[in-house]
Description:
This protein has one domain. The chain has helices at 3-37, 40-63, 75-104, 116-119. With 124 residues, the protein is mostly helical. Helix 1 (3-37) packs antiparallel against helix 2 and helix 1 packs parallel to helix 3. The longest helix has 35 residues, at 3-37. Helix content is 75%, strand content 0%. It has four helices and no strands.
Amino acid sequence: MSPSVTFACGLAATLALALAVVRYLTAPLRRQLHELCGSAERADFWTAFSNVTMVLTPLIFAMSTEPGSVPGVPPLLAVIGQLKWSCIGLVASILMLGWILGRFIPRTPPLAPVLAGQKSGGIL
């Protein structure tokens, strides 16, 4: 198998993996962003932005590897090495997205403890 075909197979596998993750995360991400942004239009934009980031980041990581540069490596192992770096890019983009969203989620203060007299129905 030529290095170009091996490289293309790695990119295709990376794209398939990234699209599967985007498909899995889109609905919960859109709901969360709708709550944070306050409107569907804003949430749709940031969902699309996040989806593009989650697809392009692993592709950039996968393109930074050269599976044909080491002679004698079987094509499957070359693709697996490329997928390793694409998974690192995918996880990095998801963790960064989670960290950024987590900073914007409002924290609610804990509820005040209920007084014992109120619990039993008595008057304080």
